[in-house]
Amino acid sequence: MSQGIEKTINDLQKTFQEYWNNEKLDKLMTLYHPDAVLVGKGQWAVYGRDGIQEKFKSFFADGPLKLTVHPETTVATEDGNYAIQKGQVEFDSAPGKLAPYEQLFKKDSNGHFLIYHDEFEP
User: Fold this and answer.
1) Which domain, by its residues, includes 81?
2) For residue 27, what are the contacts with CB-CB under 8 A and spacing of at least 6?
3) CATH, residue 90
4) pTM of the model
5) Predicted confidence (pLDDT) per residue in 58-73, tens digit
6) DSSP readout, 48-106?
7) What SS3 class is residue 41?
8) What is the DSSP letter of 109?
9) Total domains present in the chain
10) How far apart are CA 8 and CA 4, in angstroms?
11) d(CA 70, CA 2)
12) At CA 63, angle to CA 48 and CA 45, rounded to 5?
């Protein structure tokens, strides 16, 4: 896999973390593909930017919720149009408790990777 793609995805995760931690949900949605799916493994799924944004708003209902993203592995397709990253997320409300995630990124028509499938264990 190209180290360039891994760096691009890791940089995107840093931006995700920044937008999340500052509750900039409108900006956060720009990191998602219009047809993206967010899955709380075994519990629920929401489709599209609007659905994802509403789900994220519910996470902030009880106040700020800071997170730290810990990427572990990133794999890209041979043509470089898709990448999958696995890692863990740590929320400040539960220090030391890591929630596994897996994200599929798809390049858009401008060549930018966007989150296409976002799955985590709540």
Assistant:
1) 3-120
2) 19
3) 3.10.450.50
4) 0.94
5) 998 888 889 999 999 9
6) HHHHHHHHHHHHTTTS---EEEEEEEEEE-TTSSEEEEEEEEEETTSTT-EEEEEEEEE
7) coil
8) T
9) 1
10) 6
11) 20
12) 25
